[in-house]
């Protein structure tokens, strides 16, 4: 106790300041003692004590040397840093002094800046006043010009009136521009109010011009001399009204009237004016421009898909055809090829997209109705329809593809770009439809689970859906605008595959429900005693495969393959349930004979149905039999090595269960087999189809323990 107190009283200041150092030192001493006690536990190891001491001394010297070097490096870095900080402080002080001097200089100049600001304001005001002085004579004469222009209009002097109006508009626009540049936007309202009379003059001029133009064609036939007084011509048919309900009739009327009026211009009007007027070209260009503007006005309305289709067809095909501007009566004098398109390519693309959006809405409305009608048919009290070969089917794939195909083909009369847009939309909606159809199948399966007797023809309608899915898959390539391109998009093929997988899954679940009561009795004493379980299993399989024959061959082969996989899986699963352990060599032989009989019977059944032996998972049952019937247990390691090489997904638990089933494997042999498996891990090849990885081995039963007692 005294020694401890003395140690506490004599604790160094370093230990009080750095308790972590003391703790680390104690841990190091403890670790060293633990290491030394382990190394020198045996007397013969004491001979190397000198070597250990010399090695540790050298290592300590090396560590101390490195520590000193590191500390020295850190100290040098700290010294350099302090020197840099000292220099930075001096520079900061110098900058502060210079900033202070600059501040006083700026304060001294502030008054002078205020004087300059006043001069700048006066200069700006002077410039504005100079501009106003320049236009004052014109401004004072505005109302006088307005009165003069009005008299010209009343006297039918339209050209002179037009010149006066243009001059006033130029003056107004110039003043507004100057105000905007000088930031006086608030004064613009006053200027516009001062020139408000221009609007009335423009309307009056336009009214008189439209009156002359509107009667020009009739004047040519009745009195050509009077027509010579007109300046120009434009259409009288392009008033902006809501025409979407009767757009087709409106476009037909435009087509008829424009052709008729251009005939009059070509045959009569040309004779009434000088040749250099080029009156036919002027009229053609005027109609073209007015029609382009009118079509843009129409496109601003919310047109339905049919109106958009008619407008695109009329603009891109009818307008330039022999039915309108290319009419034989107008050629060759009338030529609109140099006037540009009626609507720009950008507006054509925008209109095509609007059409696709409207069409998509129509498709989205049609699809659910078709799906609901199909879903209701699945619950009917009679079998689904069949084709001429007896395969189950419905009208669903034909209806869907015909609807999509008709919408794609009709757009070929417009542009290839529109057809491609509609094709892409059709594939997107078909993919979405397949997703909803799969959801309907899931619901169909749930309804059947609630009442296995309903629907009455559950399996036939699942088979019909598989044939429908196959039909859709074969029809999809026909939708492509390019007949040479027959590829199905990856995402759509994935949707078709998911649909097929779900229908197959529901069918196999139905098969499994009928097989499970038989499979649970496999590999049991009752089975070994001669029960005809496999005969019953073959009858169930044969019944379902007869139903499967109502689907077309690719899907039938798939169903047959999956059926065989299911049967093999259930048989192997039954072997892993540990329902019995062979008690003698004779019983083991009887077990192996029964395995051979069952596997052979099942294999021959699937071979007779068209499934080759090389494609069957039942070969795994034969391999298990070879493992069980091996007489010399010393060769089990070699036999298991071959087994795991052929079936790399088999686990230690599977092999251990099979060894238990033999009933004659010692702990040493079992240990040797499992150790061999650990030394030879197997990688799954890419093409390997898992067999055992889907089969779970039951957990071993825990020993029964009495309360407060030892385990038996």
UniProtKB/TrEMBL annotation:
Residues 1-23 are annotated as: Disordered. The keyword Acetylation does not apply. GO terms for molecular function: SNARE binding. The keyword Repeat does not apply. Keywords: Cytoplasmic vesicle, Exocytosis. GO terms for cellular component: exocyst; transport vesicle. Residues 13-23 have a biased composition (Basic and acidic residues). Pfam families: Sec6 (PF06046). GO terms for biological process: exocyst localization; exocytosis. It is found in: Cytoplasmic vesicle, Secretory vesicle. Belongs to the SEC6 family. PANTHER family: EXOCYST COMPLEX COMPONENT 3-LIKE PROTEIN, EXOCYST COMPLEX COMPONENT SEC6-RELATED. Interacts with EXOC2, EXOC4 and EXOC5; may be part of the exocyst. As part of the exocyst, may play a role in regulated exocytosis of insulin granules. This is Exocyst complex component 3-like protein.
